[in-house]
Amino acid sequence: MTAPLLKLTKKDFTSDQEVRWCPGCADFAILAAVQKLMPELNVPREKVVFVSGIGCSSRFPYYMNTYGFHGIHGRAPAIATGVKMANPDLQVWVVTGDGDSLSIGGNHLIHALRRNVDLKILLFDNRIYGLTKGQASPTSELGKKTKSSPLGTVDRPFNPLTLVLGAGATFVARTVANDMAHMTQVLRRAAAHKGSAFVEIWQNCPVFNDGAFEQWAEKDVRDDSLVKLEHGKPLVWGKNKDKGLRIGGNFSLEMGSAEGAVVHDEKREDVTLALALSALEPPWPQAFGVLRAVEKPTLEVLAREQEKAAAAMKGPKDLAALLQSGDTWEVGTGEA
Amino acid sequence: MSVPAPRSQQAIQHAVVRFAGDSGDGMQLTGTEFTREAALHGNDLATFPDYPAEIRAPAGTTAGVSGYQIQFAAHEVFSPGDQPDTLVAMNPAALKVHLQDLKRGGLLIVNDAAFEKGDLERAGWKSNPLSDGSLEGYRVIRINFEKLVTQAVEGAGVSAKDASRCKNFFALGLVFWIYSRETEREEIAIRARFAKKPELAEANLRAFRAGYNYGETIEALDAPFTIPPAKLKPGKYRNITGNSALALGLVAAGQQSGLRLFFGSYPITPASDILHELSRYRRYDVTTFQAEDEIAAIAAAIGSSFTGSLGITASSGPGLALKTEAMGLAVMTELPLVIINVQRGGPSTGLPTKTEQSDLFQAVYGRNGECPLAVIASRSPADCFETALEACRIAVEYRTPVIMLSDGSLANGSEPWLLPRVEDLPKFSPNFATDPAGFHPYKRDEKMARAWAIPGTPGLEHRIGGLEKDALTGNISYDALNHEKMVRTRAEKIRRIADAFPKTQPYFDDKGDVLVIGWGGTYGSITQAVIEARASGIRVGHVHLRHIFPLPNDLSDVAARYRAILIPELNTGQLRLHLRGQIGLEGIGLNKIQGKPFHVAEVRSAIESLARRSAPSAKEIA
Ligand SMILES: Cc1ncc(C[n+]2csc(CCOP(=O)(O)OP(=O)(O)O)c2C)c(N)n1
Ligand code: SF4
Ligand SMILES: [Mg+2]
To answer: Where are the alpha helices (DSSP H) in B434-551?
Structure first.
């Protein structure tokens, strides 16, 4: 059942709209990665929909030459749920920011995930409100000084991965916008996943939060600060792959040598390993790649199956019969 | 005083019965059962269920009283009636709340067993009304329900508690006897209702029969009343509540337009039943989605409309408030969308189970920016069918959100519905864009509706959103003149909907002393009031607005044919201000904000006093 090759190119997915992000914004890299990946996915352009909320990141749909819906702040997962339920044939992407999806739209994000709607959700995490010019966001680190927190924030941030795993996400991954190869690989995996796919993309905002990820995500430090996740491979890191994660006493992860490291299993039914990996923060190596990828029935498919079952049980549509169902009576003509 | 000598046997023309008891006494069920039989008997009828917001308020208190009123008749009926002829009061609290409404000389059936000292105190009676003269002037039937029901169901194999819960069917049986109703259909209905628990079916059947026989035995009346069938328009009828009719109207709209329906909703009284009903009609290409909140419900509906379904969402006032921002998005993206508001008492959580018409301003004016959309209102339970269909038609043909206003009394009230023939229902088409040649997302047709190009259509890929858009391409535009053009275009598109309305034809006198302009659920009371006022020689016309926005183009001309305008509303005067602002029409308000429908008498006396005054100056008749 392989679809015929469409022979599309990156250009086919590039709209005629001028891209209006600040020079140096990492959003450009994500856009380029997605535009380059799309032809490879072999889905006709008209069957692709990008839905977004509000924020710098949420301008994304305007730049894709597909169907696109720039929604309202925080509501993209809900709008996209309607799109996907209305036509399960479409490939639906959600582009959102850390404020958009974790603050104002937190409710919609967790519910889309628990329902396992087949959406590819890309969270552009720059740990700041970009479009409103630099206020703290729900992923800004505790004590961060911003325009809205001149003395430093006093609220602790969300860990997006832990949050979405708690919400029951069936596909959870993290990548960084300055690693094109890794980002493309993760996006490819997300696109292939049947069900909600959540990808946190560390995205540098050079204007309001420059260098937010440089301590661990720059090319030269990555090997020592990130543990690259590969299904079926041991959880090791370091330039020489000589450090490993193992299960210690008391139900905890421990850092040690590569030997005896836990083997990564993204298909594990229970979320314990993925949760433990999601929670790693410096000085631990942070999880990088696909934490979890399990198959579960999706909302839109379950809903259509129920409709079909109802039709099979109760027979074909008959509006006249429906209107007349229940107790009816006749009033005859007679003198009136 | 127990039962005074009744009058001789009477075939009467109409009657109003109210069942009242504790929330746990099953009065809503009793009322609907009685209503079904009245409907199948061929009476015309109108009902008014009135129940507390709490599932079980403290037992025996006035806060927990639940009531169900029905007017049924041998002629056309427009309202559930002002005053009951028969009141069933299952406890002192119900008596306390409802006695004041009972017609002088009316029949009062009370549950004797529930008038112990503690019961009386809980209900706030200082002395026992059964013996202190409070019931003077009524015909009282005192019944020890507990004892009689226990005896009746003995041997049916149910617990003492379940036996006691059959009281309502005993009361139903008695009222069946009083109004000479046939018992056969009800017995079948009871068996069906408790099909899974035969011993409960048996117990309730026995209670029902015992109640019926009790009427006979004690000769509650010399002879029971009879109310012959009404001579309604010929055809097939079904008794229906507003919410059920509304749900069917939506399904019909889907079938008549060929569109799949997407219904997103978050539970809220009194709108939830629409979600419940539609969830049962899924095989009619209906997708139902119980969202995480009202915002998600409307957002998903908008997403579905973008994708080529007809997006619908339903809620009540507080939920509508949450949907406000998304409505703006639907106005901006010019997508079909139907937003149903089953109004209840406000503001805030207000009176969840009581009726009110106080969301007109919210519907017409309650959004940021210049944000016009169509607003229509249903007038009676059965009319919710047609109004829902009309809302969908406007939404699809004009690519616009439409707010449909219903209210609590329509939602739960019921009346016989002359079933429409499917061939007579309007058909309309989504007219999806398919041709890439010359396609622009904001290119408009003669109705000013923009192209509806849905994902999956090759060559029409485009992007829309809430930012101001270029008048043709739909691309983001911050151009000053383009913005003004778009604001005016969106307004003009909505205004033009009115150009297709039929001529406004007032009911009754088409010129004269008073024109009553109403909207929504007050239709029945106003109609009856106008009939009665005209009988006293006043010339009265009645216009009941279906279209709240845009208003009919000829409304001012029609209004000019009368000496005075009366605008009765269950709010402080929102339509009155709306008409003044929109068309400069000056009306006199009749306003009631008690969570209850108008009594016919209230509207009638307002008409009469307005007709009497030659130079009206006061703006409100208190
Ligand atoms: C209802 C509403 N509230 C507030 C705003 C203002 N607003 C626009 S974007 C934004 C935050 C965006 O931050 P984020 O989601 O992190 O996106 P980024 O710009 O960083 O990509 C806010 C608060 C709005 N547009 N709508
Ligand atoms: S403000 Fe930051 S996130 Fe927004 S476009 Fe500019 S650089 Fe990018
Ligand atoms: Mg951000």
So the answer is: 480-497, 523-535
